[in-house]
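Whiteboard transcription, Tuesday session. T.W. wrote the structure tokens on the left side:
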């Protein structure tokens, strides 16, 4: 393996870019920003995308806080459909996808500081990666609206939710809700703080199909670059952002490029 340099990575779509990305990532202290592109690797369309969950179900009846009280059966049927998709993907042999397995391998090699996940499917965690900050929560986690206790969705949750049955809290009998961000709600502070801690001092930010056009995500590549780190993007990319941070772009399907990159380390 060639000796990595401290020169900032240049925007590069050539085949040799994979080798340069390998040398950068091999230095360790990698932080991953994982978005919709990684979710699609597992065969799940992002909820907000055309053909996704909120295209099949009316968000006003399912995906806003008021829906939990006004149209609970519609809301929980939609949640059940999403949970079923996520669990079906996580039960596949070897994990949700080849890209998810590659992330797990990167952590096992001691090169990964953490994954900032913008997906609510919980698949990065389900793949075995331990250091995950789920910026918008996850469909397989619940919290009580009354006593605030948090718990995992039970094994029979898919069946009950698909039947439109709102779950109840085992601790107090109160009303449960998915521990994920709905429309009209703010992003929780704790995962953002955890991600910021990882990003500070990161050697490399690896962007996997994530939309970095909106705050706070749009600031993360700039902050990593200002601290002397590298930015490497795989899959769909914000070309303007990548040019600003002099980042490296590896084109192709994440299920092919990410495993190939990790295998080269």
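and on the right, the sequence the group agreed on:
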């Amino acid at each position: 393996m060639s000796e990595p340099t401290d020169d900032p990575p240049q925007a590069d779509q050539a085949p040799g870019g994979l080798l340069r990305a390998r040398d950068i990532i091999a230095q360790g202290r990698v932080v991953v920003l994982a978005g919709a592109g990684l979710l699609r690797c597992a065969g799940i369309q992002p909820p907000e995308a055309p053909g996704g969950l909120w295209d099949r179900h009316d968000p006003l009846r399912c995906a806003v806080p008021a829906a939990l009280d006004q149209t609970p059966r519609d809301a929980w049927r939609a949640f059940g459909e999403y949970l079923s998709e996520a669990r079906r993907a996580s039960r596949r042999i070897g994990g949700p996808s080849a890209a998810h397995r590659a992330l797990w391998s990167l952590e096992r090699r001691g090169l990964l500081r953490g994954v900032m996940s913008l997906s609510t499917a919980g698949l990065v965690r389900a793949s075995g990666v331990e250091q995950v900050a789920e910026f918008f929560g996850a469909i397989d986690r619940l919290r009580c609206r009354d006593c605030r206790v948090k718990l995992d969705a039970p094994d029979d949750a898919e069946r009950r939710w698909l039947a439109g049955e709102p779950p109840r809290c085992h601790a107090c009998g109160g009303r449960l809700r998915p521990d994920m961000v709905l429309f009209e709600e703010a992003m929780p502070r704790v995962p953002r703080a955890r991600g910021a801690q990882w990003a500070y001092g990161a050697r490399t930010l690896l962007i996997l199909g994530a939309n970095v056009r909106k705050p706070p995500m749009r600031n993360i590549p700039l902050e990593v670059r200002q601290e002397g780190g590298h930015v490497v993007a795989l899959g769909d990319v914000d070309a303007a952002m990548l040019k600003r941070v002099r980042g490296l772009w590896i084109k192709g399907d994440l299920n092919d490029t990410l495993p190939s990159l990790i295998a080269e380390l």
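Someone added at the bottom: The longest helix spans residues 72-90.
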